[in-house]
Amino acid sequence: MLVQDPQVLLSHEKDSGTTFAVRMYGVAGYSPEKWIELTVRGFSELSRFRGLEAARQWLEADAALTEETTAFAPLHAASRSNSGAAYILLEQRVAAERAFDEAECAWKNVIARVATLDVPMTGMSSSFHFRLAAATPDALIDARRDRYRHLVQAALAITHFNRRFLDVIFIGSDAMSRSAHELRSTISDSLGYASAEAHLLAAMEEGRNGESLREIYAGKLSDITRRPTTLASSLSEDCKKIEHAVMLTALLTPPICSALRPDRHVSFFSENLPTCD
């Protein structure tokens, strides 16, 4: 068992995930809406160290996603990455590897297509930026595309890091720590030093856990619900999907997993993980 009460059923009441999804897409029932709602619930469960329930939410989110799996499918990439994390929490190694394979392929496809991403110049922050966009539209479009490329590369790096949990017994804790340091640098450059993911990695390096992790996740959930409504109108659909996908890609760290399974430690990620049929 991963939590004390594994019989808790999935709640269907409206929460911050529902509010955010409807605000961003305008219409409940649009394909990403249910995925966002369930994914946010997964973060909420993880913030309470309820690993089994977090895993259930992420897997249900993956099943609910009706987005067509095309060459540009950032929500699918995030969903499969989160499914990999869920299968780690459920100790299903083979399913985790399969999910991470699909996530990595999907992220790489998204990166390859950022070069032609529709990045509207609406919503410029000042008249100066508006005039600059009018004078040098190609340069600003390329700069915005670079930003989205870096965001997706950060999400791919999170997927790679999560996958390393499957092999931590072979690579050792020192290698895992080095990977965390490298990921923290990538995350800080792309998502910002104040992002929840950067804080989670800092907590890992500093040996913090428990209440500190709860506060980090509470901050992430608060950031999701405070996301400005103007974001929806100023982004193209593809940009919007990237923003959501990266923001809702789950990052696992050893302190989180230790909090979920204090009795297992490194052996939890060993070759003894049971496989699924």
Shape: globular
Q: Biggest sheet, in brief? A: none
Percent of sequence in beta strands: under 5%
CA-to-CA gap between the ends? Answer: 19 Å
Q: Into which percent range does the helicity of residues fall?
A: 55-70%
Give the rounded overall mean pLDDT: 77
Salient structural properties:
277 residues, mainly alpha, 13 helices, 68% helix, disordered C terminus
SSE blueprint and pairings:
Elements: H1 16-25, H2 31-47, H3 51-64, H4 74-89, H5 93-113, H6 127-135, H7 137-163, H8 168-190, H9 196-206, H10 211-226, H11 230-234, H12 237-247, H13 254-260
Describe this structure in words.
Helix 7 packs antiparallel against helix 8 and helix 7 (about 135-165) runs parallel beside helix 12. The relative contact order is 0.15. The protein has helices at about 15-25, 30-45, 50-65, 75-90, 95-115, 125-135, 135-165, 170-190, 195-205, 210-225, 230-235, 235-245, 255-260. The protein has one domain. The chain is mainly alpha-helical and about 280 residues long. The chain contains 13 helices and no strands. Helix content is about 70%, strand content about 0%. Mean pLDDT is about 75; it is low at about 1-30 and about 265-275.
